[in-house]
Specification:
701 residues; alpha/beta; OB fold (Dihydrolipoamide Acetyltransferase, E2P); 7-stranded mixed β-sheet; 25 helices; binds adenosine-5'-diphosphate; binds magnesium ion; RecG_dom3_C; DNA-binding; ATP binding; DNA binding
Length: 701
């Protein structure tokens, strides 16, 4: 009965009617009373505060003044007629302007009476003017409901035309709330409400629509944000739980000679604390008998590869094979070279399989995989083709996760009867909050420490007009024996204009850095794989000093002697891409530099990106800025998660509440995995209703 009222179609709300109802449905997705209840104001205007004229500032948002109209005048001819009034308080005077409805307004305003004015001032030639201000007689204002905090709701043009602007929607909530009073059920365990001193669900909803004070509003909003995160986390955790229960994992029971000998004799450095910790986490997963699905996040250069290798060695010690999949041919090749070098002198057998592997070699590899002659296979997407069959695949490592989809992960699963453990390594610094919510079904490890002796990269922003200076700096660095990258944007592989930029750039660099003193390499996506590879190898061996390239070198490429990264037209790159590119330098002991080149004209957003890059080397901080600039959907290139249409919480601002929600959701499910205890009944009811129709949760309903 109670529920039914909340489910009432919106057209039955007083003041709505069929036409408005239609618009509410199509424009805002508001179908029922309940939907309106959960349409939250996106901001509030504080109408408890009054300004005086001499306090106005040129960039001020909406302000509220108290004063009198001292004169009024209609200006201009017929069509362009406007009404101009002078409005004064004890400290000064402003102008009020109406371009529409001048006559009617002139008639309704009373000279000399005290008004409360609300509006956004324009500043022009030393004077403030308010176009179309809201005015209310001061004596009425004290009785009106708009004192104090006034909620502002989203609206659309279509809704506004139907009489539902932000204020109109506010009016509807005012009609609705008294009707549903006493009917809104709690959905959080009372223990949580008590512990965080949060109001009931109903009180919070009332506060959000009818704020009583800023403090109470803040607390109410926090409660609702928490609630939103909490139920999503419960869903993710249950899903993860079901997955691990349904999926047995290979057991890597022991660490044997392959690992131990490598660790003792081949590992060229001491692992960092973070690497050791992550390795331990992988170790304990893979021994547990449960299926591992782990994401390893580590900033560029944090040493993820060696962690992957050591994990693969544990698989081998337990009679399994392992594979490592990279997103590009160059990266796969580099991984293969790097791993093969590290493994020299060990009995571990490793091979490379990519799109350009010759048929004969491919056949050999297929055969060796099946009869167990191969321990590690490195490659690109070619790895997941159905023709590639392993004798006993135990671990699949995916480097640079963001390029692979869930579907591809699923294909890897099928490569063994018991699916291989999955280790995903990403340097895309996904903010922790986002990772937690998007990959709630994965476990997350973070390598949050760089190998010792690395100096932070110095980053500067230079305009194209300073190019000669930049060339001079390149020469100095090369004279010290270092190497440089010069990277051009290639937004679309096919864009001829971008290639022209690259070619022009290459030519001007060849002019500035002539042979035989200098050798210049070039790598781009239109070259054949083997040519690209040959050029990369020349640069890696130090035979060329300058590498002119497109973003094909973005991920993973490792040339420690390169200490200077110049990014051309850097305003065209996104933040995470800039950070990835910069990560190609700073890999050796030498001081490294990154120069961000741009033209003179920059958008505000581009400026923020560049400033962020100059200010910090911290991938997580950069990711947070990126999240704020672009929003989560864009960031991940995916909209598959419910986290992306949050109603009140904000991923980039409410990370702490998300963490809290995660912790509480974990606690809840630990204590009561199926929400069967009476004190969780209301939580369970709400959860089941919210997740109706989603197969995964059926287990607990
Ligand atoms: P990423 O995490 O970006 O994939 P890599 O695995 O390519 O980083 O490692 C970057 C560089 O750091 C490599 O040259 C690697 O050999 C080196 N490296 C990794 N771990 C350590 C360590 N513990 N001490 C010193 N150097 C290390
Ligand atoms: Mg890497």
């Amino acid at each position: 009965m109670e529920r039914d009222l909340l489910k009432t179609p919106i057209e039955f709300l007083k003041g709505v009617g069929p036409a408005k109802a239609d618009a509410l449905k199509t424009e805002m997705g508001i179908h029922t009373f309940e939907d309106l209840l959960h349409t939250y104001p996106f901001r509030y205007i504080d109408r408890s505060k009054f300004y005086t004229v001499n306090e106005l500032q040129s960039a001020a948002a909406e302000v509220q003044l108290r004063g009198r109209i001292t004169s009024m005048q209609e200006i201009g001819a017929a069509r362009k007629k406007r009404l101009v009034a002078q409005f004064e308080d004890a400290t000064g005077r402003v102008e009020l302007v109406w371009f529409k409805g001048a006559q009617w307004i002139a008639k309704s305003l009373q000279m000399g009476k005290e008004y409360v004015l609300f509006g956004k001032p324009n500043y022009f030639k030393g004077k403030y003017s308010f176009p179309h201000p809201e005015l209310e007689l001061a004596e009425d204002f004290t009785k009106s409901p708009i004192q104090g905090l006034q909620p502002v709701y989203n609206s659309t043009e279509k809704l506004t035309n139907k009489g539902l602007n932000a204020r109109g929607i506010s009016k509807l909530t005012r009609v609705l709330l008294p009707q549903v009073k006493g009917l809104i059920r709690e959905n959080l365990p009372s223990r949580i409400l008590e512990h965080y001193k949060w109001p009931s669900r109903e009180a919070a909803l009332f506060e959000v629509h009818f704020p009583q004070s800023l403090e109470r509003l803040e607390i109410a909003r926090n409660r609702l944000k928490f609630e939103e995160f909490y139920f999503i986390q419960i869903a993710l955790l249950l899903q993860k739980d079901l997955k691990t229960k349904q999926t047995p994992g290979q057991v890597f029971g022991e660490v044997g000679d392959t690992f131990n000998n490598f660790y003792k004799n081949n590992l060229p450095f001491e692992l960092t604390g973070a690497q050791k910790r992550v390795l331990k986490e992988i170790r304990s997963d893979s021994r547990s008998g449960k299926h591992m699905n782990r994401l390893v996040q580590g900033d560029v250069g944090s040493g993820k590869t060696v962690v992957a290798l050591l994990s693969m060695l544990i698989a081998i010690d337990n009679g399994f094979q392992a594979c490592l999949m990279a997103p590009t041919e160059i990266l796969a090749q580099q991984h293969y070279n790097g791993l093969a070098e590290l493994l020299e002198g060990t009995p571990v057998r490793i091979a490379l399989l990519t799109g350009s592997t010759k048929t004969a070699r491919r056949k050999e590899i297929h055969a060796d995989l099946l009869n167990g002659q191969l321990d590690i296979l490195v490659g690109t997407h070619a790895l997941i083709e159905p023709t590639v069959k392993f004798r006993n695949l135990g671990l699949a490592v995916i480097d640079e996760q963001h390029r692979f989809g869930v579907a591809q992960r699923a294909k890897l699963w099928k490569k063994n009867t018991i699916p291989p453990h999955i280790l995903i390594m990403t340097a895309t610094p996904i903010p922790r909050t986002l990772a937690m919510s998007l990959y709630g079904d994965l476990d997350i490890s973070v390598i949050d420490e760089l190998p010792p002796g690395r100096q932070p990269i110095k980053t500067v922003h230079r305009y194209d007009s300073n190019r000669l200076q930049v060339f001079g700096f390149m020469k100095d660095e090369i004279a010290k024996g270092r190497q440089c990258y010069v990277v051009y944007p290639l937004i679309e592989e096919s864009s001829t204009m971008d290639y022209k930029d690259l070619e022009d750039g290459y030519e001007s660099i060849c002019r500035e850095f002539p042979r035989p003193e200098y050798q210049v390499s070039i790598v781009h996506g239109r070259m054949k794989a083997e040519d690209k590879d040959a050029e990369m190898q020349r640069f890696a061996k130090g035979e060329t000093q300058i590498m002119v390239a497109t973003t094909v070198i973005e991920v993973g490429v490792n040339v420690p002697n390169a200490s200077l990264m110049i990014i051309e037209s850097s305003e065209r790159f996104g933040l995470s891409q800039l950070h990835q590119l910069r990560g190609r330098v700073g890999r050796g002991a030498e001081q490294s530099y990154c120069i961000l080149m741009t033209g003179n004209k920059l958008s505000n957003e581009a400026k923020t990106r560049l400033e962020t890059m100059v200010r910090t080397n911290d991938g997580f901080e950069i990711a947070d800025v990126d999240l704020q600039l672009r929003g989560p959907g864009d960031l991940m290139g995916t909209r598959q998660s419910g986290m992306l249409d949050l109603k009140i919480a904000n991923l980039s601002k409410d990370g702490q509440l998300l963490q809290l929600a995660r912790k509480e959701a974990e606690g809840l499910l630990q204590e009561d995995p199926r929400l069967e205890k009476p004190e969780h009944a209301q939580t369970r009811t709400f959860f089941v209703a919210q997740n109706k129709g989603k197969v995964h949760w059926s287990k607990i309903s």
